[in-house]
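REVIEWER CHECKLIST
Item 1: Sequence provided? yes
Item 2: Single chain? yes
Item 3: Sequence as submitted:
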Amino acid sequence: MVTHGPSGAVPHYHARIVDTCQETPRIRTFVLDCGDQPFAFRAGQWIDLFVEIDGRMQVGGYSMTSAPSAAPQFELAIQSSPRHAVTRWLHETARVDDEVVVSAGQGEFVFEAGMGRRVVLLGAGIGVTPLVSIFRHAAEVAPDIELLLVHSAVSADELPFAAELAATAARLPGFRYVPTLTGEDPRWQGERGRIDAAMLARLGAPVDARHYFCGARAFIEDMHALLTQRGVPGAQQVFEKWW
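Item 4: Structure as written out by the authors:
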């Protein structure tokens, strides 16, 4: 059923949890299904998710990780947070077949075929989620472009979808997936350290690419300053402020 829901004019839909999977020690994937409702989204967008907790309607905002072709099903990868009521409910209480209300896809942090022949995706922590959606979508609709995804995380245990992303990059000549760790991990043999100018230069990140970056406020501000210093025009920098 399509409604105009708890937050006004944006369409809202009833969705059922059809599957869950523990991706990392702190990140759990939820697959939801809107059935025969006209739910749709663009790669990189987010939704509001509403659930009644202790008699009150609560809301959380989450980015899709699936490609739009999956609709009316979609996937959310959500990091646990004891301070956020909806996130806590999803991790501790929600079960397969539970129903929630979700908004249509929202935001202009999106990628579609034709938006660029070169794309750079930069993510920190759970900020990688909309970039995974873009990566998956690009692999479907623009597999011949050049695309670089760099994901910074504290440990290898916090790299959701790493095997899938690496496999896609191995299959598509223009795609690269580069995880980098900021914490100590003696098992790790890949990139280390935060995303900085030296790393982007070493990876050959093209300055003329369309750059998407997502993470905490400090990461967004750092990437904006870094890319501007590298000569990336503001029109080629795509990000959203959550504060």
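Item 5: Key structural point noted by reviewer: Residues 210 and 235 are 8 Å apart (CA to CA).
Item 6: Recommendation: ____
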